[in-house]
Amino acid sequence: MTTRPSLLDRSRQSVWHPCTQMKQHEELPLLPIARGEGPWLIDADGKRYLDAISSWWVNLFGHCHPYINQRLREQLDKLEHVMLAGFTHEPVVQLSEALSALTGHALGHAFYASDGASATEIALKMSVHAWRNQGQPAKTGFLSLAGSYHGETIGALAVTDIPLFRDAYAPLIRAGACVPSPDARQAQPGETARDVALRAAQALEAWLAEHHAKTAALILEPLVQCATGMAMHDPEYLRRARALCDQYQVHLIADEIAVGCGRTGRFFACEAAGIWPDFLCLSKGISGGYLPLSLVLSTDAIYQAFYADDLSRGFLHSHSYTGNPLACTAALATLELFRTEHVLESLPQRASWLAQAAEPLAAHPAVQAPPATGDDPGF
Which parts of the chain fold into alpha helices (H)? Predict the structure, then answer.
């Protein structure tokens, strides 16, 4: 235990930790991690901690996975980074091709950044700019679900409905609008999750009917609103939202930053509803928990709205580490593990085992059983 107090003190004196009231660490010590191994985090004294939250939901195949490590070592000897403006490289092209193929090429032209909030910003900016390029500059508003969370940069906070993150920055935030969430926990006696989804979809339709002329996009977290308490909804809401966005000419942005990469039983959560959005945001698990990486996939119609001789019609957004070769290599290795280890095919069996293991908790007074659903939500 000789090194721990020193490291903890140094961290408190030099590091401002994220999403933290630092004063709490006067009594609640930080966990000093020296290494990772599979699902375990290990401190300098050899004490092991189960990484049950997957290091903020990013780690998919365990820490220090031999195959991802190997691929990164190989890439280190080739190219560590090059700017993506005016240049390209094999890992970013391969990854973009692979992700588009996973959508059946319904989406493509990946635009890269480093974190989830940045992906949200990209999708929001792309939506407004696309409408402007298409002769509808009045469409600048955004719509999100009650209890939504899409990141903590200023643009992302405009579509985040959690006061803890928003309130201190209210003067900086451009006001958006919220519609009722299809949260299945709102089911009344005798209702199913699908009934809740249909009721929420009616509220969405009423709002769009009145405000669509000034609305650029609806942004939502497909199937699970994570930060508001893992609020789950029936896939029928996604189908209705897709149809309504088409009807009222509003873009649909699917924030799959937390729920993508197999988290809901399919690689993309939208697959449970059989729909594709206009924009799909991806981050967290895409690099296997190794390196910062986020991206936005878009339809070809969106891409073509920017494709012109006029420079001002282009999407002039950038990040220094956009499409970093090491991060893209980690993502490619992650996709290969999905394929070679048959991850998605094995998920139903794993889900069944976990459900059985958790059955004793069902009788606990703090546990509420979910309402019945008439559809397969994918998890």
Answer: 4-14, 54-57, 66-76, 90-102, 116-133, 154-157, 163-166, 193-211, 236-247, 300-306, 325-340, 343-358
